[in-house]
TrEMBL record:
Family: Belongs to the oleosin family.
TM annotation in the entry: 20-40, 47-65, 71-96
An example Gene Ontology CC term for this record: membrane
GO BP term, example: lipid storage
Organism: Daucus carota subsp. sativus
Role of this protein: May have a structural role to stabilize the lipid body during desiccation of the seed by preventing coalescence of the oil. Probably interacts with both lipid and phospholipid moieties of lipid bodies. May also provide recognition signals for specific lipase anchorage in lipolysis during seedling growth.
Protein name as catalogued: Oleosin
Taxonomic placement: Eukaryota, Viridiplantae, Streptophyta, Embryophyta, Tracheophyta
InterPro entries registered for this protein in UniProt: Oleosin
UniProt keyword Transmembrane helix present: yes
Record PROSITE patterns: OLEOSINS
Amino acid sequence: MADQAQPNYHHAPHRTISSSQIMTILTVFPLGGLLLLLSCITLTGTIIALVVATPLFVIFSPVLVPAVVALALAVTGLLTSGAFGVTALSSLAWLVKYLRRGGRDGGGHAAEMGKRRVRDTAGYGGRRS
């Protein structure tokens, strides 16, 4: 019984974070946080403006034009807030997907092929003249 074999556990290979991944994290996380902050500030400002402006328009203006202006500003503020939020969340989602793939974004191969073609063309032009 003492000679019983220990189970062989397969561990995932240890991956290290490359410098490009670190730069991606240092770039995208602050930008995503900033966009989320802008989204929150815009939403808060829009709500405060609606709370302040709506009673003023009702009391001081029987004309519907200021109400339309207030509504247009409210819609613009809400759409801007949503756009900042969606941009921040999509940036963070891209970062998570990028890191799960191990820092390979698929564009490196095409870039290397382009560099090689430029070198080959330059070398051919140099031999010809």
